[in-house]
């Protein structure tokens, strides 16, 4: 259980500094210089941007490197339950979430170095990332972009071992632009001159062209999904192919066909970063990879006890139309293998395209229970969210909480054990894991 020291430090920062994002590198660069530029004293960095899939790519990259015996630091955002989840420090036999006293000390030192100047909390916590990762030994570092790429606080890395751009689609339009090519240009901002680039599977040809042209302009060795590497399913296995040949692997532990492409991008990225990945290592990584809150089978806990007997419960924090599509496809794949009636419990925030998310589930979901997202001030009221679901062609009703939705379904459903997806927001995913008593470790 998390102690309070780091939380108290972050609460103090929240009281002093503005919430949200202020896209610029000036403040973070100034702060890092005062700290001795720890971002320049890291092991090889795998820097990952994208609208969807970047967290999965980070999880696969970590699994690959650790399966090969390497010690790996990992920075991801946002967290689900505890701030500590954002910082996984390298350790023999697998990394560990940062210990509370180590985390709290780093926050205090960074805040002191900032000297009260204007800055966002995310920028301070990004500086904490670089300070922690520079002070603890590791063989590699994996860093996930927070928002966009070009002006994201993580983009002070000047020579990444590899930059990775995962699928790009519309999200955060108020920050990044309302056309996919504009968003792709922002994501491409992490590409650095002469440094390798891996471009994951892109649905938009326009986005793909922007990414390829950026890599060419900066004279970067580029590895493009579908051209230089790919993955596909064959006889229940995953086949990965690149210029070095084929690898016949166990299917990824993360469910959904989209995870084949995410895994392939990670294999290509780790190889482009200079690490050797054997068939044995890749196979072990596919079997061991874990990524909480993303098509995660909800572990037994306080919430699962409220569901209909035998229910198959899944949790996913995807929150935009692109994420809705891949989650719906993953559920459709499960329906083909093991048919069950599907119900959706959803909460979303008001900066997301709610109707676009719901449209992906038309014809697949029997009924939607909409709930408030208690951890976010931007939560869409559950009655309004139900209207958005109906507009997308679904049957829906508002319910006061996930627990009540599960109990309502238990008391009213008299068919076979259902499949239940709880999704639509990472805030909701975090709240569910906390209430269920099964936070990430």
From TrEMBL:
Q: Which UniProt keywords apply?
A: ATP-binding, Ligase, Magnesium, Metal-binding, Nucleotide-binding
Record keyword Amino-acid biosynthesis present: no
Q: Where is the Mur ligase central domain?
A: 48-270
Name one molecular function that GO assigns to this entry.
tetrahydrofolylpolyglutamate synthase activity
- Name the domain of life: Bacteria
Q: What is its EC number?
A: 6.3.2.12, 6.3.2.17
A Pfam family that this protein carries is Mur_ligase_M
- Coiled coil ranges: none
What protein family does this chain belong to? Belongs to the folylpolyglutamate synthase family.
Protein's recorded name: Dihydrofolate synthase/folylpolyglutamate synthase
């Amino acid at each position: 259980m998390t102690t309070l020291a780091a939380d108290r430090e972050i609460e103090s920062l929240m009281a002093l500094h503005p919430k949200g994002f202020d896209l610029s590198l000036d403040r973070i660069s100034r702060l890092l210089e005062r700290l001795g530029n720890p971002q320049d004293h890291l092991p090889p960095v795998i820097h990952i941007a994208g609208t969807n899939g970047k967290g999965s790519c980070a999880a696969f990259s970590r699994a690959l490197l650790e399966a090969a015996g390497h010690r790996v630091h990992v920075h991801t955002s946002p967290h689900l339950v505890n701030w500590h989840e954002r910082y996984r420090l390298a350790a023999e036999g697998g990394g560990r979430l940062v210990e509370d006293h180590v985390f709290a000390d780093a926050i205090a030192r960074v805040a002191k170095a900032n000297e009260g100047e204007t800055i966002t909390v995310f920028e301070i916590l990004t500086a904490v990332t670089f300070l922690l990762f520079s002070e603890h030994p590791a063989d590699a570092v994996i860093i996930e972009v927070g928002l966009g790429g070009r002006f994201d606080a993580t983009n002070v890395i000047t020579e990444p071992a590899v930059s990775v751009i995962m699928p790009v689609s519309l999200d955060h339009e108020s920050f990044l632009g309302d056309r996919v090519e504009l968003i792709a240009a922002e994501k491409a901002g992490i590409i650095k001159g002469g440094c390798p680039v891996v471009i994951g599977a892109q649905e938009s040809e326009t986005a793909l062209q922007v990414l390829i042209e950026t890599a060419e302009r900066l004279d970067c060795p580029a590895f493009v999904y579908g051209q230089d590497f790919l993955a596909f399913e064959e006889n229940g296995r995953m086949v990965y192919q690149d210029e070095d040949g084929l690898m016949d692997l166990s299917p990824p532990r993360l469910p959904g066909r989209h995870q084949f492409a995410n895994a392939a991008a990670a294999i290509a990225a780790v190889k482009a970063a200079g690490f050797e990945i054997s068939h044995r290592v890749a196979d072990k990584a596919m079997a061991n990879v874990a990524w909480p809150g993303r098509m995660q089978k909800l572990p037994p806990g306080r919430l699962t006890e409220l569901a209909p007997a035998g229910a198959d419960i899944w949790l996913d924090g995807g929150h935009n139309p692109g994420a809705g599509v891949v989650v719906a496809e993953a559920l459709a794949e499960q329906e083909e293998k093991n048919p069950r009636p599907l119900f959706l419990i959803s909460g979303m925030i008001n900066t997301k395209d709610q109707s676009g998310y719901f449209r992906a589930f038309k014809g697949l979901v029997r009924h939607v229970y909409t709930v408030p997202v208690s951890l976010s001030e931007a939560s869409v009221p559950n009655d309004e969210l139900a209207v958005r679901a109906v507009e997308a062609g679904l049957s829906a009703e508002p319910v006061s909480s996930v627990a009540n939705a599960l109990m309502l379904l238990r008391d009213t459903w008299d068919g076979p054990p259902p499949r239940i997806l709880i999704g639509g927001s990472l805030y909701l995913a975090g709240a569910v894991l906390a209430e269920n008593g099964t936070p990430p470790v």
